[in-house]
Amino acid sequence: MKTIGQKIEERLQELNLSQKDLADRVNVTEATISRYISGVRNPRGEILSRIALTLRLTTDYLLGNTSIEKNNESNINKKYNDISKAFEKKGLSLEDIDSIEFEKILDMYMLAKGIKKD
Question: Which CDD domains does the record associate with it (predicted)?
Fold first, then answer.
């Protein structure tokens, strides 16, 4: 089974990104990304979410909880629409939350609905 670092490194190659590119996008140092890739440390919490979002992977894939790397686009769109409708009923707007918070909301929604993560 691949480590988190191996998965990150593989995806960086697929996207033609450097460790510095990833570090800049997730707001950590290049040394931190290097530690993740070498297996010295593992990203946690918000940093893990930012890495997954930047690399267009699921956090579950990075953590080894699933072999499915990416969410199916139609599933994401359906979930987004469901959440958007629920927000509208409460007078809220999805535009008011950033992508990291949206991922957390999506996870909670799926848990509440008993939907398995892809």
Answer: HTH_XRE
